[in-house]
Amino acid sequence: MTPADRPREIVLGVSGGIAAYKACEVLRRLREAGNHVQVVATRAALQFIGAATFEALSGNPVHTGVFEDVPDVAHVALGRRADLVVLVPATADLLARMAHGRADDMLTSTLLTARCPVLAVPAMHTEMWEHPATVDNVATLRRRGTVVLEPASGRLTGADSGAGRLPEPPEIAEFARLLLEWGLADSGDAGGMPFPLPRDLEGRRVVVSAGGTAEPLDPVRTLGNRSSGRQGYALARVAAQRGAEVTLVAGTTADLDPPAAVHLRRVQTTREMRDAVIDAAKAADVVVMAAAVSDFRPASLSVGKIKKGDEPPAIPLEFNPDILRELVTEDVPRRLVVGFAAETGDEQGSVLEYGRAKLERKGCDLLVVNAVGAGRAFETEDNEGWLLAADGSSSPLPMGSKAALAARVWDAVAERLP
């Protein structure tokens, strides 16, 4: 078994907050992805979730105290063996103890011995998240290389609402996979990928479009496409966790949780998406058009349902606005525009040749080209393609998670920002 094939070793650290119940879903997703997961819980965490639950889901005993398995020196063994440490939730207390190098329980001791990526997922009340002490602790941990996610905004304990809510488990699992992919690449197993979550977009305003659009034919039917929105959501998630202020304009999508720390605007038609994107782009440094918009719309909307007759009705179509082209032709010198092209090859040319022609025709700064069909790109968890630049350069985007592809796109964007 090669290093890339073996199950990855993950330490799931759980600290004492009400959001600890979501750690069970994170654990399930990490296990379903084929990873070996060892839960290390604080004693306060076990006041919220019993050890039996974690043991049943992980298939391993829960570690809590440093005086367990003393001959094996468990905290050293776990830290050395881990490919990734995920902290769900990372409470204000845990972040403070990490920042000050404390080793007063099994979890913090393990963190001091770990030499792998650490993903801390905060959850706490807004006042605690915004307190200067927590802000300083997070800055310290990020400076040392810990990935501290921005929390979501929403309902907290009781009737309170605000920033500090734990991101949803699918999003946490997505970032865990991204860091594992980076670890494989860094060890030489997957082709060399730069660190995926630097804070290199802080102070930048980003607009991302995602999903498809649906053009009404009548009160029942629409003309649309198959885009799930997963790639656009991944681009928005990664940008937000790299420090950007992100507006996500989403059309028709799969049942996706809103990304943490992202402003979400919902639209349905291409014209609605055009208006929302152009409005948000006025103050943006970067616009990424990942949405698969409908190029055409019915020339007229039937007031009543179109009845099924002997022959299918002829439905005249007209062009929708070209949002990407409009973004490029606007006179905004500092703005960088990224397009997406879903292509199929034929006798006239390859997918890459059609992508190059589209880049020249649209005039954007970067273009991501995906080959579609046969279970590729649309409605999938993974993606691959090519990244073409206006200066004529190109680079492959190897098969991997959509978050990994997003990280590579943001690497290219960050290099080109003034």
TrEMBL record:
Region (Phosphopantothenoylcysteine decarboxylase): 1-205
Coiled-coil segments on the chain, per record: none
Residue ranges of domain DNA/pantothenate metabolism flavoprotein C-terminal in the record: 201-415
Location of the region described as Phosphopantothenate--cysteine ligase in the Swiss-Prot/TrEMBL record: 206-418
Domain Flavoprotein: 9-174
Enzyme Commission number: 4.1.1.36, 6.3.2.5
Name this protein carries in UniProt: Coenzyme A biosynthesis bifunctional protein CoaBC
Species for this entry: Actinomycetospora cinnamomea
Gene behind the chain: coaBC
